[in-house]
């Protein structure tokens, strides 16, 4: 084995990010590392590249135990990394990027001619015929990625870690990068490949290791791996286990509220059609990076669609910005509550009133008595546990913060509310309450788009589930087909999709 | 061709056009006398702008330099008045002092992860205050060695004088070009300006580089102070107020991206000369009042900022189109 990891352990306050994980990498192998949010993939990689110090376990490279203290040291020992973005500097030339830190010098000064020559020499095995004197930023992301790989290999030369290298590439560019990776495999490098794109994993890799909640679940040869089994490993949920769906799941008979036609954005989500009924909960399912959140953000105008249109019964909708979407009666509770949702220093009242006030315009403040009434009303209705409405929202628990954010939108009475992972990081009690709230709202006629990584949550709440894979809407399940098994089969895709 | 170099070409073209326009109206402006004066009058600004260019390339800013120049003048004048030290010894002392001052600011910026703006703003008040402490009045420098320095020049064809301080300025620009474009340190500076996180991943020693950048700027400010004291023959604590901003303007007009990571040392020289040329034109005209200098500089700055913004969005849209 080129690289051997034994019982690697890493603990952060409150969580064990890696729990005695084993991992092997052979020379001339592409080994996929898979897992959902919080599985421990990035922690494992950071321990390997020296960004984190491990708490326990051993890492052996070429028979010698290593303990890199920094990415630079890991590189010197033979482990190079290429990330999705921020690998190289777009403001330097290709040659400067390739040779950075080891520029050929004469009399203490950088020798530009030798620099160019060595840079061209470094690029030669990759079949890239580009002008090394041009700024790196003037080339496409794929070429930048290949230059980054060339630099990493030139510096380290034993192990190459590719951390979602294809996330911002189109199909032709992915092929280009994969050809390079295959070439490196031929040359005997060990390659760790992290990706959310299952098709790419099956296309490129020799073996797959799945992590979940900081533990190694399985390592298997890719060729012998069943897709549905793989999804089960990743999500930690067996197909036999089923939760009860919506008691009365009525597939049809809802008047349509909104229609999206050919709605898409290049490189983010492929165009899709979607109809949302009055009082309906539409679920978006898929693995991390499948385009769930991106679809939701597109509908709310965070990253507006480049193609297609949205309309209601009367007219076309303007969803070019969040402000425009709000004017159309949309609401959006984002996934990152702490950074995109709450204003931690402001009180619960101020957080609840924020959206309402923004819509009214700042020149016409809502009277304080009115603010108090609205805040008290929602604190009571949503059962927000607090000592008072003037408490800074940052001091509340996650679940209560989430309820306050919901209150902000409910106060504006939207017709279509997008919830992105509304139950992430909140306790079990609050979890159930939020799901109950979703039901109540739809009974009152509101339509909801529920983005969730938890399949059970979707099965319990959604009338209809759209499944995404590799940035495409691949399946639409409704009525009795909204079951965990069906959703997982659709996520797995491949030969099982039928 | 790299779009990065476009602002430099724009700077050079604007300078040549401006010179052409001036020449059409006042043919004398092309004489070596005028050119010699242009270089001499702007020597201190050119030197301090070299330091500022490196700072801005690294993504920072140095607001202290104007005060440091004033402090340098007063320091030299007072020491020469109070002690029998030779000016060259005083120069060495001063350069060590201002370099250490810059290094200390760089250290704080890196260690405390404080914005350069705030740290160097504090440095600006500190240096100005120190100058006041040494003397509130203008202190004349009467040392005979200064007379030698002031009268040293090379005669150019056409009776123009290339003074010592003009030569020092041109050599400084040359040295700045070598440091920025021909050393690993220079590459690290560009890397930091392009993106700190990425630069660290690529192995840039951020702390050391930041400290050296501000030390270099301090050194240049000290040298500029020496040149300014030779130019005026005195040290005055109220001198060169706002010079740091003039230097920043020269750097930006010279085609350097204010957010860092892109630009050329040579452009800064052209930027300084462009600003000097405007002043020369106003002197030649004789009827215009001097605030026209500021208006023209303001317009030029705006033009360059818009130009860079335009280039940025141009290259981005070209990338998005798959170019």
Concise description?
The complex is a heterodimer of chains A (498) and B (323). Chain A is α/β, with parallel strands linked by helices and 498 residues long.
Characterization of the model:
The complex is a heterodimer of chains A (498) and B (323). By secondary structure, chain A is α/β, with parallel strands linked by helices. Chain A has 2 domains: 223 residues, Rossmann fold; 241 residues, Rossmann fold (3-Layer(aba) Sandwich). Helix content of chain A is 34%, strand content 25%. Chain A is built from 17 helices and 21 strands. In chain A, the strands form 5 sheets. Chain A has a 6-stranded mixed β-sheet with strand order 6-9-10-3-11-12, sandwiched between helices. By secondary structure, chain B is mostly helical. Chain B has a single domain, classed as ABC transporter involved in vitamin B12 uptake, BtuC (Orthogonal Bundle), CATH 1.10.3470. A two-stranded antiparallel ribbon of chain B has the order 1-4. Chain B has a two-stranded antiparallel sheet with strand order 2-3. In chain B, a hairpin with a 5-residue loop joins β2 and β3. In chain B, α2 crosses α8, α3 crosses α9 and α4 packs antiparallel against α5. In chain B, 48% of the residues are buried. The chains are: A alpha/beta (498), B mainly alpha (323). Chains A and B meet through α2 and β8 of A and α8, α9, α10 and α14 of B.
Labels describing this entry:
heterodimer, A: 498 residues, alpha/beta, Rossmann fold, 2 domains, six-stranded mixed beta sheet, 21 strands, 34% helix, B: 323 residues, mainly alpha, ABC transporter involved in vitamin B12 uptake, BtuC, two-stranded antiparallel ribbon, two-stranded antiparallel sheet, 14 helices, 4 strands
If interface size is counted as residues with C-beta under 8 Å from the partner's C-beta, which chains form the largest one? A-B, 27 and 28 residues
Number of strands of chain A: 21
Mean pLDDT of chain A: 85
Overall outline of chain B? globular
Poorly predicted ranges of chain B (pLDDT <50, ≥5 residues)? none
Estimated share of beta-strand residues of chain A: 15-25%
Oligomer: heterodimer
CATH topology label of the largest domain in chain A: Rossmann fold
Global shape of chain A: globular
Structural class of chain B: mainly alpha
The largest pleated sheet of chain B is described as: 2 strands, antiparallel
How many helix segments of chain A? 17
